[in-house]
């Protein structure tokens, strides 16, 4: 692997590891923010695999996070507790439970399969139509998970899922997603898809099937989103509202703020916005900085993140990283 | 009293028509701005929300009804112009997808500002509550607001048709939504046409805010959010880039959700959104230009 | 010395790395037709687009009756009395012929306007009056071209720019359009005609500039139109 290529993986991976190490050093209560940020990295990188490489907008990826969360959640609640939380569960889900790792693998599988099924018709669309159609997918998923109690807790919160996503699992998960995203974007498929992003007509003219390339990326990013959903449900008890508009907004904001077209941008965006968001969350509960107490009213976080996202879109549409991959600062040869 | 064939009550029919009428207004508001800017304004519902808060505050301050309505219009129109100036204008020329994400951000921003300013519990707009009382028409009890909503929507649409068909600025708006570049070459001023579209769309949002607060006086930060999402679906199904198909789409989706919501038992009607959005996907796949358009999707190259 | 109705000086236009127009200068007086001819990609349309403010010129100056048009928006250029009949006509197919004409009024500087204006345009293009209630999309290509010129004229411009008006038209219709241009010149407008049909343009215009590779190569007068050799040399030099 060429040096630049290796750096494209090393940069984002090092950032994930650094966040994990930092999380291990801080107090127990602050550690939670880091764990959450790492799960967000997984989600945002999953988004990047499709949106970043294809240039097509998707509002629907949180569907696959939700599906992954439901899969892992339903399967890992101990069988003895299922009737209490999910009385209407379908028979084959009611009687068995699987371990942590199997539940994550199945979450990825479920996310990938659902994404593939959705992609088969939808990848014929692009631009605004794709944006609206993927949004419709999110609405449908949300609606079904909310009321279809044979597959989950319906309106209730997903409680009793073993909370196995600690800092370590979140870091490993995020790292796994980053490596998969890197491997994809370096692969032939990733390069072809980016060619269709730059110039769809030219890519078609040299025989690239835009449809097929988008299909592959969508399914892969669905699988990664599913895995991230699995991590998420093992992190804290969630409900359908937790994997709906707010999460769609915050993760899209992270991707846009970081820079949509690079893996580096996705990781930077997820961590930077998480850091900002957590600081503001602390400030909403009263935060002491250098002796001064900062006490922000509840809801400030979303205002700040929303304003930041709008500002980045207007002033710097390519994001904080300019949509470029990680590079070391260039040391000129004659300086040495 | 029921409509025997479908087993639908007349009351349900009237309420569904009223809901369709209100949604039709929202659809036109979204469609007008899309026409001139090629921008789907996700934050349209937050304009309605702002108007609803204006009404709620006015009734909290015990202002007379007319003053509340004036405040509602003032707030929504000012916010519309601000949105155009601060967000839409800098984004002009960006891809539709970028603009959609941006208005998505604006929607969240406004919603969280409302949360910050007024808290999650909501305020109550009571000044027009008397419109909720029923009147008896031909042996059927119908709430006054149902009739008011239908009449007001019809008048608004009529005024809009007159504006578009009979005035110069209307002609310019129609031309701009068909081919903005050529319209500008002919001397049509872009900022003025866009400003007019944004203002008309804002005025419609204010009207919608009044209608919706009567039906649902509790104003929360997510007021009109669900409605906007459903109307967006309707507008896409009808046809985004023409005012009349967009209106029909909005009406149809409002009417359909009203009828099905009223006629189906809860365990079925709760899946209504899934059917609506499945329909949206289907329409996008087979008729990207919309159901109610004569010319097939030539304008928006998706 | 009074300035021409339209003056272009040392105009440069670049698209990214492509240098489409290089130092082009010419002027058009009232009551004059100036032709701009040359092969595809010679820079003819780019010149028109730069005049209209559709692309920003990298360098040079464009003036109408002494006032600079540089960095003005297209609608402001139109309102300064420069009307463009765009390539491909660009009539609004779903609007009626009359509505298309009314759109032309958007750039008119005098309010109220002259009463005989529409009559005058109808006289020039009877077809426009005949079909005035029909959607413009129902018109044939030649009829649409007449409508596009009529639409530009109702703005009462000082300068009329035409981008390949004869493209795709039957010979009989081309005659009609060129006759109309001659009549428009008689009324004292300054006309800049960008065309592929070199011979007809050179015969009609008071002067014709030949563009090649973004540069102004040669200027021909009506007397050169019959001289095939000069024409061929102008194109293939």
Features:
heterotrimer, A: 336 residues, mainly alpha, two-stranded antiparallel ribbon, 14 helices, 2 strands, 2% strand, globular, disordered C terminus, C: 237 residues, alpha/beta, 6-stranded mixed β-sheet, 4-stranded antiparallel β-sheet, 9 helices, 10 strands, 34% helix, 26% strand
Overview of this structure, please?
The complex is a heterotrimer of chains A (336), B (302) and C (237). Chain A is 69% helix and 2% strand. Chain A has helices spanning 3-25, 28-54, 61-76, 82-85, 91-94, 100-122, 127-147, 167-186, 188-198, 200-205, 210-233, 245-258, 263-284, 300-315; strands at residues 287-289, 292-294. A two-stranded antiparallel sheet of chain A has the order 1-2. Chain B has 302 residues and is mainly alpha-helical. Chain B has 12 helices and 6 strands. Chain C contains 9 helices and 10 strands. In chain C, α3 (97-104) packs parallel to α6 (141-153). Chain C has helices spanning 44-52, 74-79, 97-104, 117-124, 126-130, 141-153, 171-186, 198-204, 228-236, and strands at residues 6-15, 18-28, 32-37, 59-64, 67-68, 82-85, 159-163, 190-195, 207-212, 215-220. The mean pLDDT of chain C is 89. Chains in contact: A-B, B-C. Chains A and B meet through α7, α12 and α14 of A and α3, α4, α9 and α12 of B.
Number of helices of chain A: 14
- Multimerization status: heterotrimer
Give the strand order, joined by hyphens, for the main sheet of chain A.
Answer: 1-2
Mean of all residue-level pLDDT scores of chain B: 87
- Most extensive interface: pair and counts? A-B, 43 and 41 residues
Overall geometry of chain B? globular
Radius of gyration of chain B: 19 Å
Spans of at least 5 consecutive residues with low confidence of chain B:
295-302
**Helix fraction of chain A by DSSP (H/I, runs of at least 4):** 55-70%
Structural class of chain B: mainly alpha
Q: Output the radius of gyration of chain A.
A: 20 Å
SSE topology string of chain A: HHHHHHHHHHHHHEEH
Please report the total strand number of chain A as a whole number.
Answer: 2
What is the helix/strand order of chain B?
EEHHHHEEEHHHHEHHHH
Number of domains of chain B: 1
SS element count, helices of chain B: 12
């Amino acid at each position: 692997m060429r040096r630049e290529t290796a750096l494209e993986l090393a940069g984002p991976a090092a950032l994930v590891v650094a966040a994990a190490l930092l999380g291990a050093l801080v107090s127990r209560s602050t550690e939670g923010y880091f764990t959450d940020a790492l799960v967000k990295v997984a989600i945002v990188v999953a988004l990047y695999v499709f949106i970043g490489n294809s240039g097509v907008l998707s509002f629907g990826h949180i569907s696959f996070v939700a599906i992954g969360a439901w899969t892992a959640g339903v399967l890992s609640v101990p069988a003895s507790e299922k009737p209490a939380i999910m009385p209407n569960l379908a028979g084959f889900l009611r009687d068995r439970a699987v371990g942590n790792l199997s539940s994550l693998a199945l979450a990825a599988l479920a996310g990938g399969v659902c994404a593939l099924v959705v992609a088969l018709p939808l990848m014929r669309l692009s631009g605004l139509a794709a944006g609206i159609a993927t949004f419709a997918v999110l609405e449908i998923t949300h609606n079904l998970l909310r009321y279809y109690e044979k597959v989950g807790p319906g309106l209730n919160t997903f409680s009793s899922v073993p909370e196995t996503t600690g800092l370590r699992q979140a870091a490993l998960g995020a790292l796994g997603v980053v490596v998969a995203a890197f491997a994809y974007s370096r692969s032939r498929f990733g390069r072809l898809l980016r060619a269709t992003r730059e110039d769809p007509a030219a890519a078609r003219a040299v025989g690239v099937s835009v449809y097929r390339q988008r299909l592959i990326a969508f399914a892969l990013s669905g699988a990664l989103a599913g895995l991230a959903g699995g991590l998420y449900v093992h992190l804290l008890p969630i409900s359908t509202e937790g994997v709906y508009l707010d999460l769609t907004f915050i993760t899209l904001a992270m991707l846009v703020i970081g820079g949509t077209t690079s893996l580096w941008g996705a990781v930077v965006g997820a961590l930077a916005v998480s850091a900002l968001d957590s600081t503001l969350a602390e400030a909403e509960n009263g935060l002491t900085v250098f002796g001064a107490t900062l006490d922000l009213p509840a809801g400030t976080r979303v205002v700040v993140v929303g304003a930041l996202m709008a500002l980045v879109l207007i002033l710097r549409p390519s994001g904080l990283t300019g949509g470029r991959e990680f590079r070391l600062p260039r040391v000129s040869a004659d300086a040495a | 009293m029921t409509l025997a064939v479908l087993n639908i009550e007349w009351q349900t029919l009237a309420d569904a028509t009223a809901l369709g009428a209100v949604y039709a207004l929202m659809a036109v508001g979204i469609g007008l701005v899309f026409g001139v800017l090629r921008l789907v304004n996700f934050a349209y519902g937050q304009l309605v929300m702002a108007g609803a808060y204006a009404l709620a505050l006015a009734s909290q301050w015990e202002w007379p009804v007319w003053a509340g309505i004036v405040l509602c219009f003032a707030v929504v129109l000012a916010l519309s112009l601000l949105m155009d100036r601060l967000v839409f204008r800098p984004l002009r020329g960006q891809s539709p997808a970028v603009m959609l994400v941006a208005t998505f951000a604006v929607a969240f921003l406004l919603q969280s500002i409302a949360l910050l300013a007024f808290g999650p519990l909501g305020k109550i707009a009571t000044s027009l509550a008397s419109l909720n009382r029923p009147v008896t028409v031909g042996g059927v009890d119908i709430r006054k607001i149902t009739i008011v909503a239908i009449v007001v929507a019809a008048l608004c649409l009529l005024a809009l048709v007159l504006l578009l068909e009979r005035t110069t600025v209307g002609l310019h708006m129609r031309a701009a939504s068909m081919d903005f570049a050529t319209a500008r070459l002919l001397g049509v001023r872009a900022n003025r046409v866009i400003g007019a579209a944004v203002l008309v769309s804002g005025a419609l949002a204010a009207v919608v805010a009044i209608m919706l607060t009567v039906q649902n006086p509790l104003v929360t930060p997510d007021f009109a959010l669900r409605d906007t999402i459903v109307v967006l679906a309707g507008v896409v199904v009808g046809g985004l880039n023409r005012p009349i198909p967009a209106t029909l789409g909005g009406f149809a989706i409002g009417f359909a959700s009203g009828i099905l919501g009223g006629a189906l038992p809860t365990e079925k009607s709760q899946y209504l959104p899934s059917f609506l959005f499945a329909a949206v996907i289907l329409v996008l796949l087979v008729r990207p230009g919309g159901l109610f358009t004569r010319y097939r999707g030539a304008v928006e190259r998706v | 010395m009074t300035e021409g109705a339209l003056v272009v000086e040392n105009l440069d236009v670049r698209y990214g790395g492509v240098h489409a127009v290089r130092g082009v200068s010419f002027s058009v007086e009232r009551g004059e037709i100036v032709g701009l001819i040359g092969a595809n990609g010679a820079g003819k349309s780019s010149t028109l687009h730069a005049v209209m403010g559709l692309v920003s010129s990298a360098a040079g100056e464009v003036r109408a009756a002494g006032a600079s048009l540089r960095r003005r928006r297209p609608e402001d250029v139109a309102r300064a009395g420069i009307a463009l009949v765009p390539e491909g006509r660009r009539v609004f197919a779903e609007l009626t012929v009359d509505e298309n004409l009314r759109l032309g009024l958007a750039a008119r500087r005098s309010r109220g306007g002259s009463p005989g204006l529409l009559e005058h345009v109808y006289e020039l293009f009877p077809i426009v009056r005949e079909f005035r209630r029909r959607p413009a999309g129902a018109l044939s290509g030649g009829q649409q071209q007449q409508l596009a010129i009529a639409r530009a004229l109702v703005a009462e411009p000082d300068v009329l720019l035409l981008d390949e008006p004869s493209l795709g038209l039957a010979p009989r219709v081309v005659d009609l359009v060129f006759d109309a241009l001659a009549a428009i010149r008689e009324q004292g407008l300054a006309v800049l005609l960008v065309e592929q049909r070199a011979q007809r343009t050179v015969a009609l215009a008071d002067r014709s500039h030949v563009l090649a590779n973004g540069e102004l190569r040669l200027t021909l007068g009506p007397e050169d139109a019959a001289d095939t050799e000069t024409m061929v040399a102008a194109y293939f030099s």
